[in-house]
Automatic annotation (TrEMBL):
This is DMT family protein. It comes from the Bacteria. It holds the Pfam family DMT_6. The chain crosses the membrane at residues 36-55, 76-96, 102-120. InterPro entries: DUF486. Keywords: Membrane, Transmembrane, Transmembrane helix. PANTHER family: DMT FAMILY PROTEIN. The keyword Iron does not apply.
Length: 122
């Protein structure tokens, strides 16, 4: 159960992280956001990123072996990175229609999945 909770929280965390880091690139398309300066965009992104921490910190505390969770520190990091790339890819394909998924991206993702396999191999 802790592994499911950890992964679920990491997914939520990465949704907010992706919105904070890359969502602002679409702000110019939103009414009222076109004229915002960089400082305003930074503060808006920072406010969104705050919610990332509401999910990331508990995910790591719940999932970490030394806190009674099922994952080592390295396993947590690899899980988080793979989730980040999956969330980012989905976000990019939905929000940025001019971006395409190419064969080299798929090969890279395959290698990341292989990395997860080897990190978890005993």
């Amino acid at each position: 159960m802790k592994s499911i909770a950890t992964i679920g929280l990491l997914i939520l965390s990465n949704i907010f992280m992706t919105l904070a880091w890359y969502g602002h690139l679409k702000f110019s398309e939103l009414k009222g956001f076109q004229k915002l300066g960089l400082v305003a965009i930074i503060f808006i992104s920072w406010g969104i990123a705050l919610f990332e921490y509401f999910f990331q910190v508990p995910a790591n505390r719940i999932g970490f072996k030394e806190n009674g969770g099922p994952f080592s520190l390295v396993q947590l990091k690899v899980i988080q990175e793979v989730i980040t790339l999956v969330v980012f890819t989905i976000f990019t394909l939905i929000a940025f229609k001019n971006e395409t998924l190419k064969w080299n991206h798929i090969v890279g993702f395959i290698f990341l999945v292989l990395a997860v396999y080897f990190i978890f191999k005993k």
